[in-house]
Amino acid sequence: MATRKKVLLKVIILGDSGVGKTSLMNQYVNRKFSNQYKATIGADFLTKEVTVDDRLVTMQIWDTAGQERFQSLGVAFYRGADCCVLVFDVTVPRSFESLEAWRDEFLIQASPRDPEHFPFVVLGNKVDLKDNRAITENRAKSWCDEKGNIPYFETSAKEATKVETAFLTIARAALQQEKDEDIYHDFKDAVNLDDVPDKKQDGCGC
Amino acid sequence: MWTTPEEILIANALWTTRESNRFFALQERRGHGKTTSFFSRIIGTFDSLSDAHRTCPYRILLSQPDSEVSYQIAKAHHREEIEHHWHWLEENILERLDSIESPEDVRQFVFGKLESIAKAKPSAAQQEADAPVIAFRRLFQMPPEERLVTSCLCNYWSNKHTMPKKGWLYVSVNHFNFYSFILGEEVRLSIPWTHVVGVVEVTRFMAPAIRITTSTHKHVLSSVPDREMMLQLFYQLTAKAMSRLLEISDDAFSYLDTLEYETQLMRDEHAERDVPDDRLFEYYCHQYETQQYRELFRLPQSEQLESRWDCAVFDTHTREPVFGRLYVSANYMCFSSGKASGLTLILAYRDIATIELTDEARRSSDPAAVMSAICITPHGQKGHTMFGFMADPAKIARLALDRTTEAKARRRKHDAAEKDADVIVEEEHILKRPLHEEYGTDSGKEVQPTKQHHISLLKEQQWHAFLEENACGASTFRTGAERDLVVKGIPLKLRPQLWMEYSGALHDMQAAPGEYARLLVANRGRTCLAIEEIERDLHRSLPEHPAFQRDVGIDALRRVLTAYAWRNPEIGYCQAMNIVTSVMLIYTSEEEAFWLLCALCERLLPDYYTKKIVGALVDQRVFENLVTEFMPELGRHLEATGLLGMLSLPWFITMFVSVMPFQSAVSVLDCVFYDGARVLLMLGLQLLEDNYDELLQQPEDCYIMATLTQALQAISNTETRTTHKGDKKGSNVNSLLHRAYNKYGHYVTNEYLIKQRRNVRLGVVQELQNSVSRSAVRTVVGDSLFDKDELAFLHREFHDGCMKVAFWTQQKDRHKRRYLDQTQFGALLRKLTEWDVFADAMYTLLHKEGPVNFVSFTNALGIVCRGSLNSRLVMLLRMFETPNTRKFPDKVDHQQLANLWQHLSELFTTNSCEKDMRYEQAFNEVVATAVTLASKQECLPMSVHVSDGEEREGTAEHKHGADSARQTGVGGGDGEGEDKGTGASETNVVVEKGAPTADDDDDNDDDAEALSDAGDRDDDDDDDEEVEEEEKEVATGDDGEQNAGDENEATSKGGQVVVPEASEGQHTTQAEDGEPGEEEEEESAQKPAAPEVTTAADMTPTPAADADAVLMMVAEEVGSHPASHHPATTASTPASATASATTQQRDRTRSEASLWSKASVEEMEANPHTETMTFKVFRAAVLSQPLMVEYFERQVPLRERD
């Protein structure tokens, strides 16, 4: 699997409108924070070359529109995603409550091969706004645990808190997923037979 | 119905006499009913083609002994109706007629009677007019709520027919129906408009035809009279159906939006309801014309077309007449010359000062002729508009004058409103000037090089000259010549005025003066989801512009967006509206920006910003088709990456504002306000064309996107500063627009767009609908006993059911339109299963948990079709739960059992699939067993021994009891057996034997009676048998007798098989039942008020339960093991098992509340003894009969009729 030179990892960022998806992406890719972003219409993307565990990979990060009505867009680009990042705003309870719907929506639209083990990463953004915080770390963590040990990070795109670490985990998870996909494509029948065992948990320790 | 007497010469031609007496004959028309002779078919065919098939197949004649002439005195569509009349005649008239001697007097008497009846009923003429409606309802089983719009004779071609079928087309509000009967071959179609995916004009054998496509079939109609109008009607009805689909297809997030409001669809429906039935077609025609009129002149939604006149308007300069059509409505007079010269003129009455009728010398071939013309002079203007060459100038002038007077009166009222609004404007600090006046049009410092300044001045001069030249009173001629000027860019100063005028926003504003301020004040402090969304986006609209970096811009933006959200909650707020509005605020005043936004949302970009952004999706699809047409290679390339849709969405929905520098995009806005959404499509095409080669070379989707993003960012504007530094080619927006118009302008016209949208829209909505359906299926698949395909089928059926609820009930609450009501639930159950006798009880049961949605519907259906024995029995019992059941869990609820028996007996005796007498027999055994068990459970200390023989006798008796209960109908169970005939009380007698312990006071009297009845059992039994057999004979005639014959045989057979085992069960139970029963009684005394039956029993497994277990075990040996069935059920749906693995968990949380989910069914299966005593008795009784076990265990196939 290490034979292929160029690895392209496709990462989708989802979450309610205004939770900071665009800011997180820009903070990670351009190391810049600006409060001059327009609301994302449709979708946008940025790419970044990173080294993950001594491997050079290109991350293609897709930023999406958060407003519900844009969901009907057909979201063709969900297909072939290697990792899905769910973002909520720790100061807005509703954005946390929507995580479930976003996760479902992604699984329905992207229909990954092995939905049980598709890698998600949850980011609770805007932790710099300590005074307005409405969702505790514990609450978010227990939700993530419940959904199959999804890695959880508390980030601030504004102050660049944990953004780098989070995206590294995202990259690793995506890379693992990519490998799994490769194995699947190479030995389709073989995998089909022992598809059942739960051993191959995506071991993305956080 | 009774008719006015009509002479019939040859009474028997085409008719068969069914019944007759001395005076009357009841006849049935041949070719109806079941006869299949060739002659009958001919008549049937003839009837179906002529109007005759709308008249009735049954009639009653008054025959006259002395003459060949008969009189038709009654007719009917249904046999029942005519029989009703017949009986009435027999009972009320016949005897009297016998005493009258002269035939003449007989006639007079009958006619007199009829006349007096007729006076009390609606006139015959009215009934004649209703004939098509009646035929329509009869043929398609439509309820009165379904309104017929029109009907006509036409040819029908289906997929399989090579020859057309001639027949009647019935167009109703919600369905497209066709009926034909040709030589015994019947075609009967009834398709809801919501199923239609396409309506197009086609040719069939050289003749124009209409093709209606659904996802599975193609239906072609030819020789349709008034085809154009019919086609328009189809368009309107499908469009309406699509709005309905969209309204109903809210999804996962919709719970957030709790605001109640009236949708456009509801308003339309309301208006439609006020239209009388016979004017419905007219109403739709008028709606269509009005819509055309409003679109043509961009008038407010409220404007209704009154009349149209052919005429000419005289050119102000040349005085040459331009021919066209004059339209008159409540507030405007408009003129359009049609496509050729493209001259349009809009006159608002409020601007008109005088209307004069003058004589104008005709300048045509005959110079001597003089003709009348109407000369209209506006307020404070020199020029006037003159119309001539019209049919009745005086009438038009009069009309115009009246309207002007009315408009003036309204205007005075408006003035007051405007004054109030002015105060608010001051209070709220509403911006009266465009933001650019203070903050410039640039994001950085305003730098206006002299060259650019010069250009803009020049442009302004050009515009002024143009406007001067084309001024026409208060209005301007629009000739199409100004398009070139618009494409070059409207000068800054003229922008507000021209945007308002071209977009029609000016008319909207004038129609509702002060509306903007009113909206702001009325909703001050209110909040809803849209308002929160707006708040989040205020700083994310145009952050690069200085005005939006401070409160002045942000506040204005907030005001405009919230005002719009309150004006139109159906749209509320859609991202992109913020970006567009902020740009408009730079160039226009705040109120103007508001009205421009209205014009965009409601007229220029139709449905772009709705909850599903359908309009944008539709235009996107039209755009994709255009790309494939003009640039096939690039089209294929982009299609392969699946990117075009996502790419073009921001182009359309923000009118390029979010992807271009806004100073450039404003030129696009100029054109959109002038020409509508077609500009966006043309510009998109031109953009792709400009970057054609580069795009083709890019293999990856992200690079394609990057290429276009760069190209768009580099687009500049002549007036403002040129391109950003370092950009390679940055084209000029105005030249881009110019090229786009030149290249695609002739092809992508507004007419083209309207047509394409119509074609594409149906598909887009259906796709959205499909994805909603997929989501719904995915949500329940893990927790349902059905597999994915079955659920998909069920969702279609469920959805159609909901649609019918929406069609036929005037449901105000739009959320309620997503649930089944009792009628539709019953209809679906009848259609899909054989347990429809329980429809009402099941609905009531489900409804206790909330409105019947897809989850509860499939859960219930799952139990009916796939449930285990146990879950089915639980459900059956629950349906007949009486309120006090839960309070005394350890007593048998006789009421409940009695209710249950009645319905079950219906299931086993009337259900067409179960005519088998063995079931009836087995069922009666079950009742008997249950009764015995119940009595034992309650009277155990007495320990009544029942011998084999007695038992069997009892069985026979219960059978009759159940039978007669069926005949007397439901309700015998409520303890008032007396009034309901011996049969019904017999059931109660048996069931309520142990009832003295029951707490129901009302029952006591009956109980006493019951006991005494029980004492006289033998006598009663005999009586019953006789009574019952008599009843049977009367009711069912021949069949009844046959049944009775078989009955005895079946009884004896059944008895042989069943009795020994059953009685063995009895004995065993009895032996071991004794003491534990006592204990159980005690326990029930200890816990009389246990709130939850199941939990109470769960926590303390009583000895009684053990005893019951023994009973059940015995029974289970007799029947097949119920538990063995369940694994088979789950195994039968392996697909769902794997697919659902992921979804299961989340769905569990969602449907946890549902009592009938798969999980709770499993739970029931695991703990079969946790139900009430009643249940235990019921269950044990059922288990004692192998046939019953078999019945309740087997899988019931879903009936998939299509």
From TrEMBL, chain A:
Taxonomy, superkingdom: Eukaryota
Listed GO biological process terms: endosome to lysosome transport; phagosome-lysosome fusion
Keywords: GTP-binding, Lipoprotein, Nucleotide-binding, Prenylation
The keyword Lipoprotein is assigned to this record: yes
PROSITE patterns: RAB, RAS, RHO
One Pfam family named in its UniProt record: Ras
Keyword field contains Lipoprotein: yes
GO cellular component: late endosome; lysosome; phagocytic vesicle
Single annotated GO MF: GTP binding
Recorded family membership: Belongs to the small GTPase superfamily. Rab family.
PANTHER family: RAB FAMILY, RAS-RELATED PROTEIN RAB-7A
Name of the featured protein: Rab7 GTPase
TrEMBL record, chain B:
Domain annotation Rab-GAP TBC: ranges: 489-676
Biased composition (Basic and acidic residues): 947-963
Entry keyword Nucleus: no
Classification via InterPro entries: GRAM, PH-like_dom_sf, Rab-GAP-TBC_dom, Rab-GAP_TBC_sf
Compositionally biased residues, Acidic residues: 998-1049, 1072-1083
Record key words, sorted: Repeat
Name this polypeptide is given: Rab-GAP TBC domain-containing protein
Organism whose genome encodes this protein: Salpingoeca rosetta (strain ATCC 50818 / BSB-021)
Lineage of source species: Eukaryota, Choanoflagellata, Craspedida, Salpingoecidae, Salpingoeca
